[in-house]
Amino acid sequence: MRRIKIIEEKIFVFLSAFMTYSLILVLMFIIGVVFVKGFNALNPDMILKTPRGGYYYGGEGGVLNAIAGSLYIAVGATLIAIFIGLPAALYINVQLIRHRKTQNTIRYFLDALWGIPSIVYGAFGFTLMLFFGMNASLLAGIITVALLISPIMVRTFDEVLSTIPRGLYEASLALGSTRTETAFKVIFRQGFPGFITAVLLSFGRGIGDAASVLFTAGYTDNVPVNLDEPAATLPLAIFFQLGSPIPEVRERAFASAVILTLIILLLSFSARFMAKKYSRTNLR
Amino acid sequence: MSPLTPTDSNVLTVSHLNVYAGDHHILRDINLEIPSNRITVLLGPSGCGKTTLLKCMNKLTDLYKELKVSGNIYIGNDDILNTTHNIPAIRQKMGLLSQRPYPLPVSIYKNVAYGLKIKGIRDRKLIDFSVEKHLREVGLWDEVKNRLNAPATSLSIGQQQRLCLARGLAVKPAIILADEPTSALDPISSKIIEHLFREMKRHYTIVLVTHVLRQAIRLADHVIFMCDGRIVEQGSPSDLFSHPQSDELRAYLIDGN
User: Fold this and answer.
1) Of B79, B76, B77, B81, whose CA–CA distance to B53 is shortest?
2) Which terminal CB of chain A, N or C, has fewer other CB atoms within 10 Å?
3) Min Cα–Cα distance to chain A from B256, Å
4) pTM
5) What homologous superfamily is domain A48-281 in, according to CATH?
6) Of the candidates B189, B195, B194, B226, which has an alpha carbon nearest to the alpha carbon of residue B211?
């Protein structure tokens, strides 16, 4: 009996460890392959120059247009999503604190929104764009991506807020603060590290998504300077270059993927650093 | 019985208070008076409605939609239960100490300064003075004076609870509502809190919820024994504990010891 238990324990420890480390291995493998395949095409030109004539046939230039477009769209959409997400999440958790049913209904709808594939957002954004007589543009891309990531932002903010103990609300109210003061001075402070994670998650989804910007942001070889100009994005740049019959161009697709991955990794590290710094005062 | 009316020596009067949660009758026709500058102990087994009664007193029951509250609670001549006017000011008349400390997610200094800033006080010197005064009042000053900017969560649980007390005192309440304030603390920290309560009743009126009989005996000037949402008996501790009238209290005294 005892032996069986020991064996059982060993098998399960091995299995769970194996699964955990294989995931990390897979991540390393993905990054490794992308790096190796794109390494030859990685040069300063890639991030400093826009495509010149004949770029897509192996000519000179880089993907600065896509880097700038992606950053513009992701930053713009994230800012809009924060402005939607923070008040919404605070409303759900502070004002609706006594209305559990309403809270849960809202959460259900947000989860449904989260689950909608991004191509559907793309199609919706496209319809919206035509309705308002707009062209494929930076603005249309930003709005569509903001719609895509807002549910993520609200729900992750919401998850953070719902883990904040009720006693902290009560303590703050008992000191004579209003609900609004409680929300901004106490709850926001306590949730700050979680909010950073939420913003990062949304930003990552926004910058990496191709389907939602396919029809709405369009594609261009220039860095957009106005909101009504079309904007290129890294995922689409990867897509177009990867479809090329020319090996040098396909190599550049991988180099672009490296750039996209690096942007996300850099952001992830800095967000972690900030979250750590601000969780010092937090109630655990 | 005639409705209770507030008198000078009573800070707070509860009259015909009923609380329902759905079909469950949590508090049944509660009538009581909280004498000023005394420690009034709400004693009773878990789930008898002590905490709910305490939360009614500073309107934290507003946070729970499922609770239906009726009756009156007077401070002076104001019925605080049936008003929606300036609730923060009502809550500032009462300091709350909960079962476990909930320090705000800021520094030690800012925890005490928080209530003052909410009140609109901006004078830096006045806030400094008040922070020191109230940290001294709870005997925490010497322990934290060199690290006022450290996170409040870096303190031990016992220190955090005293910080929460200081934070409450800084808004100048008349009444301290304490909901089993020592239940999460070690014996030494509990002793410090009990000692503080004895000192503080000179300036404050204290309502203490506890299910620890020994604590009630040590601290109470006035005991309200509750069971099953009702007040079973109330009176001075010597009367109540040496001559219990009801079966419930008799049973509680035997089990509680």
Assistant:
1) B81
2) N
3) 28
4) 0.77
5) MetI-like (1.10.3720.10)
6) B226
Asked if B234 reaches chain A (Cβ–Cβ under 8 Å), the answer is no
Beta strands B222-227 and B10-21, pairing class: unpaired
Q: Over the stretch B142-166, which tens digit does the pLDDT of each residue have?
A: 999 999 999 999 999 999 999 999 9
Q: Are A95 and A179 in contact (CB under 8 A)?
A: yes
Rg (chain B; Cα; Å):
18
Are A190 and B105 an interchain contact pair (Cβ–Cβ within 8 Å)? yes
Nearest one of B54, B95, B67, B9 to B224, comparing CA atoms: B54
What integer pLDDT is reported at residue B5 of this predicted model? Answer: 43
User: Residue B118 and residue A186: Cα distance in Å, rounded?
Assistant: 12
Q: A170 and B171 in contact by Cβ < 8 A? A: no
Apex CA B116: angle with CA B111 and CA B118, to 5°? 95
Q: What is the CA radius of gyration of chain A?
A: 23
For B102, the closest chain A residue by CA position comes to A168
Residue B85, chain A, CB below 8 Å: the answer is no
> What gap in Å lies between CA B187 and CA B171, rounded to an integer?
28
User: DSSP readout, A166-182?
Assistant: HHHHHHHHHTT--HHHI
Give A86-91's long-range contacts (Cβ < 8 A, gap of 24+): A86/A157, A86/A195, A88/A154, A88/A157, A89/A153, A89/A154, A89/A157, A89/A158, A89/A160, A89/A161, A90/A157, A90/A161, A90/A183, A90/A187, A90/A188
Amino acid at B115: G
**Which DSSP helix (H) or strand (E) runs through B230?**
strand B230-235
Q: Where are the domains of chain A?
A: 2-41, 48-281
pLDDT band, very low/low/confident/very high, at A45 (cuts 50, 70, 90): confident
pLDDT tens digits, B169-206: 999 999 999 999 998 888 988 999 999 999 998 999 99
**Distances from the Cα of A284 to the Cα of A85, A138, A172, A274, B241, angstroms:** 24, 42, 16, 18, 40
Measure the CA–CA gap between A74 and B83, rounded to whole angstroms: 48
Residue for token pair 């040069």: A43
**A-B contacts (CB, under 8 Å):** 86
Query: Does A280 contact chain B (CB < 8 Å)?
Result: yes
Contact B5, B13 (CB under 8 A): yes
Q: Please name the residue that has the structure tokens 């709350």.
A: B96
Q: Is B133 on the interface with A (CB under 8 A)?
A: no
B47 contact A CB<8A: no
Beta-carbon separation of B115 and A175 below 8 A: yes
Indicate the SS3 state at residue A201: helix
- In the three-class reduction of DSSP (H, G, I as helix; E, B as strand; rest coil), residue B119 is classed as coil
